[in-house]
User: Fold this.
Amino acid sequence: MIPASAAILLTWPFMLWGMGMIVLPVTAHLLYLRHRRRVVFPTLRFLRQALAAESRFFRLRRIVLLLLRCLAVALLTLGFSRPIWTGSLPAGRPSGPPAVVILLDASASMSLEQEGVSVWSRALSEVHASLQGESEPGALFNVIRVDHRPVPAFPQMVSNARVVAEVVNAWKPAQGRADFASALALARLLLADHVGPRRMVFVSDLQATNWESEWVHQLEREPIRWHVTDVGAEHAANTAITDLRVVPDSPVAGRPMRVVATVINHAEHPRTIPLALRLDGQLIGTTRLELEPGKRGEIAFDAAAATPGTHRLTVTTGTDDLAPDDTRYGLLEIQDGLQVLLIAEADPDDPSRDPYYIHRAIAPLGDSDRVRVTHSRRGSLPAGVLQGFDCIVLCEPPEMSDTQLLALQSYVRQGGRLLMFLGNARSATTAGRIEQRAGDGPFLPFLPLTRRSDDLRVAEGNWDAHGLQAIDGAARLALAEVLFSQVFDTTELVPGAMKLFGFDNGALGAAWVARGRGGVMLVNFTPSPTAGDIGKTGMFVVLLHAIVDRLRSGPTADEPLRVGDVLPIQVGEVVRDETGRVMDGLRPLDRSGFYERKTGEDLDWSAVNLDDRESDPRKIAQPPVFQPGDDRKSVFAKATSESRAEELWPWFVLAALAVLGLELALIAWGGWRA
Amino acid sequence: MVTSGYRYLRVADLRRLRRLGFQCRVPVEGVYSGLHRSRQRGQSAEFSDYRPYMPGDEPGDIDWKIYGRTDRLYVKLFEHQSDLTVHLLVDASASMAYRGLASQARVRWDKADPAAEGDSKYDYACRMAAALAFLTCLRRDRVALTIAREGGCDSILPQTSMRGLHGLLARLEEASPAGEAKLAQAIGWVARGMKRRCVLVVFSDLLDDVREILAALSGFRHKGGEVVLFHLLHRDELDLAGLNEAMMVDSETLNRFPVHADEVRKRYTQTINHYLSATAAEARARGFDYNRTWTSIDYYKSLERYLLSRKARR
Assistant:
């Protein structure tokens, strides 16, 4: 067995017996000395004297010439033994039949069809040609399906190319991305123990989003010979829906909402893209969007969901070259009516007082507005039922006992939302007392200091925050025109609080802080309709609705699922895909669409979409690491010869000729004599 | 070519050499009267010198004219002209058998050309020795031969007749170089046997112990003889021309080792040149008539050149 450290192997080691031919120059040397012309000379006395001075030098010359001849014989013998340089080949690899692993790109982009020809069918043709191209007996094959979870056709290399081809024929492209890094590792594993030339063939559309990755750089140092076959389509035209969102992001049952889809045109020419929205399978609306090549645009559908709960949204585009990304799946959580407790000292039925005004602002249509407002006056806080309210509004609150204040704090920490208006002195006092009773740190996002006397305007806002998206650009302009005259100077925001908007003097206008499972929003203006403030403007209703929406429980922070992700399954939960197949929570998701999640009688859904990167059909530019121009024949010719490592016999023959040339030069021009 | 019938003596060459003679540069001591100066006192008409009268001298040798002038008695001395004895000493060691690298090239037996082989240093020495022997006999002088081979000496006593020359030539042909010459011993043997002053002509490649050889020659010369030394070499021995890789074998010791000549040629040439220069200087310093002779030059030309120069120096 060849030791692992050997770098030069002999293909025909038996030829080393030819080293015995070294005796030829040695024998000739000796015989020549022995059988020289015999000359009888009168006396050798003078010759002996001359030789004594010169013999050592010339003897060395003759020895050198003899050694050169022996070296030439040795080099020729080694050349005939066909040495090879194994380089980085693992030890113990004498020649054997070739082994080829084909890495077949099965990502979603391989489903692309152009003029009736699919990239996948083209790839299959290349795979079949590669399997049939190797004619050497004993050649071994395997094909790895490279999708989000690469898997080989067979667990080990097989010699029956026809069987491998049959397995590959049954494959279809997946809807996930191609994990070439894992596929490459798998290919190395399959070829690790092979004795003989090894080759990897990549059959792929060379999609840039798959190939512009770190794993490609490994190929530069890959010891196994590899080759890439490009089956990608040129000038593919594809459009895709990359995002789906709802405004407001916590819509209420029965209330209007807007479904916004983001579309991108990956084609090389402008396109008019038809779009259709379905809610729970029902067509809600259609529209068209014109996009320039490479541009992204948004299209909005107006919709409303009658019932609370999880609803399924789908937005579809027209057919293009890549079908799997023509549908975008989303889920919609529709909220039930908002339960609001309004705590104020004033009479809620007095139209001139704040409670009446706020009630009407929150629920303009009364109880049928799906926002139910309950009033509570001094000393009549509903005992034990605070938790039943989605939101509690404090506006000109009455004198509240410590118990009541603690109850409010407890309500917030248990998931409730508290909205508190400043604006008058009592409110400020109440805020101070709430803060004092908090005990273990700040409770409110900020505290009021002194009342200002000047008018302020809203100068900035965190309008992308949950609930405030409804304050669109026009609304912000309008809000900026409102003069706020009942504003307190404030402390700085406490750590962890979020400013919603602020005034032009730097004072905080509204801020939110999470406390426990709930939170507190403190608003630095008065809701009074009579004060010189936003209360008497129409903007107050818009702002109040936005604030109340902000206080509503927002959508869960679940990450959008993509094909290739693993779906977390709870204990006792049964998850099925649209075909009814039960998911086990171990295998990655392999299809886009809706997945039903059932726990007992509770039904929920998960929406899974294609990875947006698969929608971009652009191909990678040719990096220098690729070997363009190799045809299939040369691929396997190289596999046969190059993977046998580099033949060294020409170098040995050249070296032998060089040695002989040196000897002749020494004799002819150097005056050396054998 | 008309040969003399002896391998080492060519008639054609002798025709050229006949007009030359081999004179002795020092007074000789011959047995008979000859043509060469001798320190022996003889009845020659050539006045040599005076000396004071000593009791016992012959009154007839007294120079009465000088007595009349000086009132002193002096005896006349007259030069004795005697014959010359030339002793030829030929080195017949194995190294003298060297014919050159070309002769040792691998050639198919049916394509071998004997003429391409060339003379060995021994052949060359024998030719020169034969020519000198002939010239010596031609002047009625005496010639002796010693062949130093395998540590021994094969000698022929001084001869004056042509018959003796024939025997000498035959002896040269019979001998073949082998083993070590031990030339110094041979020279000593010749010196011990020398009764009278003579000329010793040595033909050798001097690859034995040169100091011993030169010392032995000095001893010979000390006795009054003349030493003529022909240092015979093959060009291949100077620069290893044409040699690349070879297994070199020592001709005398048979030791061997491989050599890449190109690697050592330069150093070898320097070494042997140094040796030759030193040997020549030492020999001349000792008063020998040293002559370096390459076998690539026709022997008669070498001998002719030498004899002419010898004559000029006399």
Q: What stands out?
A: The longest strand of chain B covers residues 33-41.
